[in-house]
């Protein structure tokens, strides 16, 4: 023990002179200026390298954008990379994105893609200062990887190789050129004009990239846009005109949304980073697989079928309890059943695997289309041609099923097959192959956390159990007895049902309000709390209200 202590003391004592602060200061004083200059110079080189990398990357993206004017927006490097990221996104992350970004999930994703590319480009530029060959190879490799990612997208064709390849090539050339200018500038003496050459070269290239990228983006959007075709579309007249539902489908409560959700407010959920632009002139629908008479029809041929209007609420399996991914609309479409009968579905076939132009696949039960419900190929929504983001020119709809198993937008292919032999897009990602809509209800008024004056508090909201209908809605205040809400008139079992409740003598304080619905079969909505995966959330929507 004592030996060790002494040894330790000796050890520390022996270190002392080296740690003498006075000595170090004395030695550093004259050298610190040089070190600082060196650091500043190093910082300057890193900054210039990063700038060169960013500009080279920007040129690459701009070139990719310009080439995609020819090959299609979805083939541009950032969009293809983002689309790839979506395809490999694990289900929990997709849920996180839906929950936190909602309909802005695509903006969030693209921002992420651009930020990642910027960091990589800046790092590449710094690397190029010291290892130009390696940086060159990396830039080329990046273009090649981008091209591979693009060309392996399900909707791709060979031309999708070019935006990324040419982007990589352009970025490489700019990287080499600007790095050379930048090196010359560092070696040259002040006032030699190299600094001006470097700055002008870099900023000029950056400006060119911005103009080309911005212009390319505008150009590709206008070139591919089908908004003109949509504006021109003449809607067929339905066999029988559906009367407007009675005004009593909507309780007149301030702050409660209308019975029909305006198209501009209708939720949007899909995996398309750029909205598919499908011209009705080139649109075709193919029905094939386990059928006697496969066939293909054009949009004009589709219009020669009988059309009907149907009111229907559409909801997403990803809607959390109380969430916004539900909407109600009047749809115009042609029933799917006659089309299936024309094809002659084989007796063993139980699944319609529908595919969209962007190669989303959705599996729906044949049974649900043939059992008499109004499953349709819809071409209009609330009196106007389908909005492009809601599937123009044609989408599928089956009352009673979540969107991911029924509501294929931009649909062009119906493959009649079996659930046993085919997986739709979301199945390997953890969602059930079949998913009827679960009974759900929501309190919309007042907003959760709202302050309301004491007295009579009006509660209102909506409830849906699509295709089964809603028979009752009840509210519960602070774990009290469930009390019957006033139901608005029912339109069809396929639509949601709005409700209201006059909460008389609401006492001051913070209160919990809960809601539950009973569907048309008499089954009360389950209180069991379940998340979205694998087939829809359950539990009672609960809000707090501050009565004062
Ligand atoms: N082509 C395509 N169709 C699709 C989807 C998609 O990602 N791609 N998403 C489905 C899902 S999950 C839902 S909930 C509905 C949403 O339709 P909406 O965006 O018109 O509200 O579309 C369905 N149809
Ligand atoms: Mo969905």
From TrEMBL:
Domain Oxidoreductase molybdopterin-binding, residue spans: 273-426
SUPFAM superfamilies: E set domains, Oxidoreductase molybdopterin-binding domain
Alphabetically ordered keywords of this record: Membrane, Transmembrane, Transmembrane helix
Basic and acidic residues bias spans: 1-18
UniProt keyword Electron transport, yes or no: no
Transmembrane segments: 46-67, 108-127, 134-154
Pfam families: Big_7, Oxidored_molyb
Location of region: Disordered: 1-34
Annotated protein name in UniProt: Molybdopterin-dependent oxidoreductase
Organism: Actinacidiphila acididurans
């Amino acid at each position: 023990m004592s030996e060790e202590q002494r040894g330790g003391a000796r050890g520390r004592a022996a270190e002392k002179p080296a740690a003498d602060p006075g000595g170090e200061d004395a030695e550093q004083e004259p050298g610190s200026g040089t070190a600082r200059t060196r650091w500043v110079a190093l910082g300057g080189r890193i900054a210039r390298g990063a700038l060169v990398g960013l500009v080279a990357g920007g040129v690459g993206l701009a070139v990719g954008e310009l080439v995609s004017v020819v090959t299609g927006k979805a083939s541009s490097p950032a969009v293809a990379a983002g689309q790839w990221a979506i395809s490999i996104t694990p289900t929990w992350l997709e849920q996180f994105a839906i929950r936190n970004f909602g309909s802005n999930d695509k903006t969030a994703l693209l921002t992420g893609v651009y930020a990642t590319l910027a960091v990589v480009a800046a790092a590449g530029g710094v690397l190029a200062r010291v290892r130009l060959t390696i940086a060159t190879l990396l830039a080329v490799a990046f273009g090649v990887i981008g091209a591979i990612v693009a060309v392996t997208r399900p909707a791709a064709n060979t031309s999708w190789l070019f935006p990324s390849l040419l982007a990589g090539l352009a970025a490489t050339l700019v990287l080499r050129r600007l790095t050379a200018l930048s090196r010359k500038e560092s070696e040259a003496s002040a006032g030699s004009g190299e600094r001006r050459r470097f700055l002008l070269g870099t900023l000029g290239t950056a400006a060119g990239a911005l103009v080309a990228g911005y212009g390319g983006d505008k150009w590709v959007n206008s070139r591919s846009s089908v908004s003109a075709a949509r504006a021109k579309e003449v809607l067929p007249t339905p066999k029988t005109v559906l009367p407007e539902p009675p005004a009593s489908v909507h309780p007149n409560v301030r702050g409660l949304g209308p019975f029909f959700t305006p198209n501009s407010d209708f939720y949007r959920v899909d995996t398309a980073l750029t909205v598919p632009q499908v011209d009705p002139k080139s649109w075709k629908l193919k029905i094939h697989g386990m059928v006697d008479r496969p066939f293909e029809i054009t949009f004009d041929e589709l219009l020669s079928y009988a059309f009907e209007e149907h009111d229907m609420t559409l909801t997403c399996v990803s809607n959390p309890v109380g969430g916004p991914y539900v909407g109600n609309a009047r749809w115009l479409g042609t029933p799917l059943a006659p089309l299936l009968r024309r094809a002659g579905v084989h007796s063993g076939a139980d699944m319609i695997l529908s595919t969209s132009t962007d190669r989303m696949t959705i599996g729906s039960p044949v049974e649900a289309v043939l059992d008499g419900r109004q499953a349709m190929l819809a071409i209009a929504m609330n009196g106007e041609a389908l909005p492009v983001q809601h599937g123009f020119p044609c989408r599928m709809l089956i009352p009673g099923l979540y969107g991911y198993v029924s509501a294929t937008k931009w649909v062009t292919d119906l493959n009649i097959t079996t659930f046993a032999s085919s997986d739709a897009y979301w199945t390997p990602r953890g969602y059930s192959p079949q998913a009827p809509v679960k009974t759900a209800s929501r309190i919309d008024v007042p907003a959760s956390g709202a302050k309301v004056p004491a007295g009579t508090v009006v509660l209102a909201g909506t409830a849906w159990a699509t295709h089964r209908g809603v028979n009752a809605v009840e509210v519960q205040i602070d774990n009290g007895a469930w009390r019957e809400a006033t139901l608005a008139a029912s339109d069809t079992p396929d639509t949601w049902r709005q409700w209201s409740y006059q909460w008389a003598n609401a006492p001051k304080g913070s209160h919990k309000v809960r809601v539950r619905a009973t569907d048309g079969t008499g089954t009360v909505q389950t209180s069991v709390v379940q998340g979205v995966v694998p087939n829809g959330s359950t539990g009672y929507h609960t809000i707090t209200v501050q009565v004062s």
